[in-house]
Write a structure and sequence with these properties.
CATH architecture: Roll
Shape: globular
CATH class: Alpha Beta
Structural class: alpha+beta
CATH topology: Nuclear Transport Factor 2, Chain: A
Strand order of the largest sheet: 1-2-3-4
Largest sheet: 4 strands, antiparallel
Number of helices: 3
Order of helices and strands: HHHEEEE
């Protein structure tokens, strides 16, 4: 799903399934209006960016030491569910954190999931995605 066709209604349910409206959850983080307060909040905003096709947020929220030069998103892939399984660190007072999650997608008639343990760190005072191990 690309950014132009994505529903960014601030009153709509946030794609990260936090239970909060988009305008109170990931919306302000994607818009650059506020920084994610925790590693989990950044991970949720990155899932939402994948769901909405927001390549810019994905690149900006990636640590500069591990960020790719470019990022191609599969426009046929629809990310529809996120299950956060555990967090380790990543609080507003930490400098590092880990979030383990499963993200579910559809591509045409194919259904699949991605299970990852992601590492996050603070860079210039903001949480950024460092890297992850897919299992």
């Amino acid at each position: 799903m690309n950014t132009e066709s994505a529903n960014r209604d601030p009153d709509a349910r946030c794609p990260c399934l936090s239970g909060h409206p988009f305008g109170e959850c990931c919306g302000p983080v994607l818009a650059g209006e506020r920084a994610a307060p925790t590693a989990e909040a950044l991970m949720r905003s990155r899932f939402t960016a994948f769901a909405l096709g927001d390549r810019n947020h994905l690149l900006l929220s990636w640590h500069p030491d591990t960020r790719p030069d470019d990022l191609e998103l599969d426009e046929d892939m629809r990310w529809y569910r996120l299950d956060v399984e555990s967090t380790n660190g990543g609080s507003p007072f930490d400098t590092d954190g880990e979030v383990t999650f499963t993200a579910y997608y559809r591509r045409g008639s194919e259904k699949g999931s991605l299970h990852e343990r992601s590492r996050f760190s603070r860079h210039d005072g903001r949480w950024v995605y460092l890297d992850g191990v897919v299992s």
